[in-house]
Amino acid sequence: EHSPEKTVILMPVEGNTQSAGILHGGASAALAETAASFASQIHARNVHGADRGFAVGTELTISHISSVSTGRVIATATAIHLGGSSTVHLVEIKNEAGKLISSARVTNRIMARRA
Fold this sequence. Notes:
By secondary structure, this protein is α+β, with helices and mostly antiparallel strands. The chain has one helix at about 25-50; strands spanning about 5-10, 55-65, 70-80, 85-95, 100-110.
């Protein structure tokens, strides 16, 4: 699923772990920002046109709730604000069983390339 209102992406845990063998918090943060940025990019193109609009991250806050050591994690970015100059998404990262792993809030700035 991929829209400004809701974007869902997956990431394998394998290759993204820290020394204890669990999903690295930095990998979770990157996944959260990526999901929100994908959604914001579509919104930016809707606001400024497909060839001019783009989004850049300005804020990321993440809480790590639980750990995961195998399988994949699913990030769901849900818009709480889609404005002309910014977007805000709440991102939930869950394991394949639906257990909450991390919760994030991501703000992106909506910009237009200069002509």
